[in-house]
Amino acid sequence: MTRIRRPRTRLRTGTLTGTAVLATAALTACAGGTASGSAAADEAPRTKVTVNLTGDQAKAGDPVKVTLAGDGTLDGVTVKDAKGGTLTGQISADGRSWTSARTTSPGTGYTVEAKASGATATKAGFTTRAADKVNKLSMAPGKNTTIGIAHPLSIVFDNPVKNKADVEKHLKVTTSNRTEGSWGWMTDYSGKDRVDWRPKEYWKPGTKVSLAADLNGVNSGRGGGWFVRDYRTNFTIGKSQVVKVDLDGHRLKLIRDGQEIKDVPMSAGTPGGDKASWRGKTVLMAKEGTINMRSETVGLGDAYDKMVDHSMRLTWSGMYAHAAPWNKGVFGKANKSSGCVGMSDSDAKWIYDQVQVGDPFEVTGSDAKGTQALNNGYGNWNVSWSAWQARSALTA
Fold it and tell me: What are the start-end ranges of the H helices in 141-275?
């Protein structure tokens, strides 16, 4: 019997061999490389299976296809990466080939094991070329969090995403109550590519949401690079709360489950210039507590430099709701701040303790410098549903 010497450092690539169901004559090599063996006199001839990817510089981003080169049908194929992950796939209707459901990731070694009907399994392997550039992302809200009814699922990418439709196809949102929603692309306030998933209406309290971003092996396109891992996150929608800010009436109200819980006097941004507040449906991005606020950071010169308590961020451009005891003489009477919504210490603390990240702040009134931009925090709700859907890369 002739022995087959197996290499020690890497698996044989290309055509796989297994004992044939039917007795056949010696087989010739198939395109795509071979891994053949000599049959003993008392063994049935071996059948050959070809793999579309071979060698140690195989193309990333393609599915794996295993094809039976002789007679018979495939019983099963398994493709695993070096970390133990599995590429699932399906055998064709005629039983002659198997194709993976997902594509290969760059810089990854794969082991292919195939079994023909009535034959023993056989193995081969290949490694994909390393990526020239890798793309990564950050997601909000965070994993295992509870958030308010207005918070979108937001993804910001490190590098540009030219293949937006391909990326979006690999982002799957699942909700516990089949919430209707859509992805929408934009340029983030930071200048990076961003995509948000927004419900048609505010979330229903108690909704459980999960995201499966199966991006491993997806190419961002020119200048963006490859994704080399999958991402997962999940969160739950908390209480139904809306904060209503009336710029003209100088009042802030907390509404819970449709009922008014608190009504406090406030003073918003000075109208008529850059110090005016933004109008529109904004979303509480973060409860930041006591922070240093400096006017230089928002383009207002050296007007102020203060430690500010009970700070609740509403936009990236620096609009907050917070305690502003220095303006106590105008609460409920006039808008005299540098753009934020200011309250007394006690009122600001009460509101701060009650609100959730993700609660909508619905700001109305004429004393504004305009409507909050889509990307200046989470301005998603200032766009109509049809206009939001049109931002999907998969819109026909």
Answer: 164-169
Whether residues 304 and 292 share a domain: the answer is yes
Domain of residue 253, residue span: 241-382
Local structure of residue 2 (DSSP, 8 states): P
Give the integer Cα–Cα distance in Å for 183 and 213. Answer: 13
Q: Give the pairing type, strands 145-147 and 231-237.
A: parallel
For the stretch 99-117, pLDDT in tens is 999 999 999 999 999 998 8
Cβ within 8 Å of residue 288, ≥6 positions away: 311, 312, 313, 320
Residue of 29, 13, 17 whose CA lies nearest to 72: 17
230 and 305 inside one domain: no
Q: In terms of domains, do 169 and 51 share one?
A: no
70 and 20 Cβ atoms separated by less than 8 Å: yes
- pLDDT band at residue 43 using 50, 70 and 90 as cut-offs: low
Q: Are residues 196 and 233 in the same domain?
A: yes
* Choice between 71 and 338, residue whose per-residue pLDDT is larger: 338
pTM, two decimals, is: 0.84
The number of beta carbons lying within 10 Å of the beta carbon of residue 258 is 7
Tens-digit pLDDT profile for residues 291-350? 987 656 555 555 567 889 999 999 999 999 999 999 999 999 999 998 999 999 999 999
